[in-house]
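Bug report (template v2)

What were you trying to do?
Predict the complex of my protein with zinc ion.

What happened?
Run completed; filing so the output is reviewed.

Input:
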Amino acid sequence: MSNAALVVFSGGQDSTTCLFWAMKKFTNVEAITFHYNQRHKSEIECANLIAQKWNIPHKVLDMGLLSQLAPNALTRNDIEIRAGEAGALPSTFVDGRNLLFLSFAAIAAKQKGIRHLVTGVCETDFSGYPDCRDIFIKSLNVTLNLAMDYPFVIHTPLMWLDKADTWELADQLGELEYIRQHTLTCYNGIPGEGCGQCPACKLRNAGLIKYMERRGKT
Ligand code: ZN
């Protein structure tokens, strides 16, 4: 089996950091992006541009069914983006998203003889998403291996990093500036530094400031 990996790739900070991480670790890297009627088509455009620039074979898969079943703030303009209060999940949570994305990624990977899957899920800056937890990923890894009788390995390089640590990893990979300028994390669809106001921008920018302060000291 080849030393190849398939990265679940959205064009955001986290999955782009994972893409560079995979490019250091594996000889062949491919990417898969899921289109589920996100509010901003610019996410898909960002993912396309990054994949083209780095010569990464890239597949965009239509998962519109997901937003038909589970309307949420990422796919519907009439649902407000808000953080979860008092134990509630944020309005950006999409039931089953990582379960489905990783399952489809695994099917696509096996077709190509790829057994390594890479995803940017993270338990540290835990927004309350149950399918970002390490225990869920480990459980799904076992399930996928049993379902397809195939030795998948799901890699989660960001699992125990906070946003400042993720910027540090980008810096160690030599791509901090690239990721800063060319990825899209903002819920309002603005690439790079973003709108600065939405929860995703606040988390991303606070992490960058924290890391830059830390780097300044060493
Ligand atoms: Zn924003």
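What did the reviewer find?
The first strand starts at residue 4 and ends at 8. Residues 199-217 form the longest helix (19 residues).
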